[in-house]
Amino acid sequence: MRALLGILVLAIAAWLALALLAPKGSSEPAQAFSSSRECQTCHAEIFAEWEESQHAMSWTNPAVRLLSNDFANQDCIDCHAPQPVFVTGIGNRVKPRTLRRAEGVDCISCHQLPANADGTPGGMAGGLNNERAACRPTERRELARPDHCAGCHNQHETVDQWRESSWFDGLGKQDCSDCHMPIVEGPSGSHRSHLFPGGDTLSMLQRAVTFEGAAVDGAWQVTISNTGGGHAFPTDERSRAADIFWRTLADDGTRGPWRHLHRMRSPYRTEVDVEVTLLQADEVRVLPVTAEPEGLGDPITTDVPIEVALFYKRSPYWIDPANPDPETEATLVHSLELRQ
Ligand code: HEC
Ligand code: HEC
Ligand code: HEC
Ligand code: HEC
Ligand code: HEC
């Protein structure tokens, strides 16, 4: 028995030595990765971007931990610490993993291909084939397609909204990755950014909509148009809200208190009385400025100079709902001063 074991150990040692010394080539299987940290050595810039992204914090994000009761709600693990999308299959709902959950939506979640029939690691889905690279990238067009994002980002119809928009087809066609993975230049050449900017980035919020004011029949009106969001504004999480406020501007520069005019949001399932007011892609919405929210009360006439502003919130609630303070509780996206 001991002799047999000895031979086995020797055989394994010989195989290991061969595997390590052999020239890198197609005969060698892809490296098996057990953590996204291992990608850092060879893909340092992309790793640094990903580390700053929401994807990297999907397991540690305090907002998620609070709402999922520290993931005691197991349903929340699926997309926040997922198994590789290519393993569960594009088009299917992703499944939760048990290991290295702190890495959240990591390199392996999006790139790892299923194991080969002989059990060797499947390599990484990429834009090219490279038989000599340790991670064995294989060209898989599905990687950059919206169906890949949909496994996690369509539970609130972001991908469906995009499919129904002018961005889906024709001359102006733009995919999720065209807008959310811009090409950036780094020391080792250009690559697709892995920062995934979204509602957390002011320049993205600003380019999502056009915000204009006008005098019509002696009263102020604002027009908000979704000209740059590839989907509804806001989209995805139901907690996101965009609000329009206005206030008076006195000649001496003093400003009145902010007054609420309009909210764009998709309510939580439990909020049965709240309407869906998301600004759909390509939608143009005209709003008369009135004394009370949502077009109620008297119109504000053009002899009153006003400021109108668009704010974005990641959580829908105000500390004091009767007196919301957008400047401290929300992000200012656009502002206009309207004077006769
Ligand atoms: C395996 C699941 C999964 C896949 C696949 C995935 N995402 Fe995400 N994504 C998430 C999660 C979870 C978050 C939020 C993490 C957090 O904030 O805690 C997120 C966050 C984002 C954000 C930031 C949103 C914000 O509030 O600013 C953007 C943008 C984004 N994803 C775009 C994409 C795009 C584009 C794709 C496809 C190329 C994609 N994601 C693929 C799960 C996924
Ligand atoms: C089907 C995939 C999926 C499941 C399941 C899921 N999430 Fe998410 N979650 C996402 C995506 C994608 C985002 C990013 C969307 C965005 O930023 O608008 C996100 C973002 C969030 C955010 C916002 C984080 C922030 O910084 O504002 C919270 C909070 C959250 N999820 C909590 C939960 C909770 C609680 C559960 C379980 C009840 C859950 N999620 C289950 C996909 C999922
Ligand atoms: C949310 C999914 C997602 C995550 C997480 C992710 N990637 Fe990617 N990655 C993509 C997509 C999609 C593309 C292809 C974009 C395109 O071509 O439009 C890509 C492209 C790449 C490329 C080719 C880049 C280029 O433009 O030359 C490399 C290399 C890469 N990823 C490595 C990584 C590494 C390393 C990590 C972890 C640090 C990582 N990715 C995390 C989705 C992801
Ligand atoms: C030992 C170095 C090394 C490690 C570790 C490594 N890679 Fe790579 N990777 C490469 C090389 C080399 C290429 C080929 C670049 C080329 O041909 O332009 C590559 C290419 C890729 C591509 C295709 C790039 C494209 O332009 O489409 C992806 C995706 C990728 N790697 C992802 C990963 C991920 C994810 C990890 C970690 C799980 C990882 N790699 C670990 C060296 C490495
Ligand atoms: C034409 C460019 C464009 C396209 C195409 C696009 N997006 Fe966006 N996306 C934006 C802009 C701009 C924002 C910031 C405004 C916002 O938050 O709605 C954004 C925000 C987001 C957010 C954060 C939502 C929030 O309000 O916090 C997520 C998640 C997201 N996009 C996912 C996707 C996915 C998935 C796709 C593909 C189906 C996609 N996007 C296609 C431009 C685009």
State Rg.
Answer: 26 Å
Q: List the secondary-structure elements in sequence, H or E.
A: HHHHHHEEHHHEEHEEEEEEHE
Overall mean confidence score, pLDDT: 92
Major sheet details: 4 strands, antiparallel
The 3D shape can be described as elongated
Structural class: alpha+beta
Q: What's the total helix number?
A: 11
> How far apart are the first and last residues' alpha carbons, in Å?
98 Å
Number of domains: 2
Lateral strand order in the biggest sheet: 8-7-10-11
User: Care to count the β-strands?
Assistant: 11
- Ranges with pLDDT <50 over ≥5 residues? 14-25
Descriptive notes:
With 340 residues, the chain is an alpha+beta fold. It has 2 domains: 36-192, no CATH class; 202-338, Immunoglobulins (Immunoglobulin-like). The chain is built from 11 helices and 11 strands. It has helices spanning 2-21, 44-52, 62-67, 77-80, 85-88, 107-111, 146-153, 158-163, 176-180, 202-208, 326-329, and strands at residues 124-126, 137-139, 183-186, 189-192, 210-216, 219-225, 241-248, 259-264, 284-288, 306-313, 331-338. The strands form 4 sheets. It has a 4-stranded antiparallel beta sheet. Strands 5-6-9 form a 3-stranded antiparallel beta sheet. It has a two-stranded parallel sheet with strand order 1-2. It is elongated, with a radius of gyration of 26 Å. The N and C termini lie far apart (98 Å). Bound molecules: heme C (5 copies). One heme C binds at residues 54-55, 57-58, 61, 64, 79-80, 82, 85, 94, 105, 109-110, 148-149, 151-153, 176-177, 180, 196, 198-200. Residues 146, 149, 153, 158-159, 162, 167, 174-176, 178-180, 198-199, 204-205, 207-208, 228-231, 233-237, 240 line the site of one heme C.
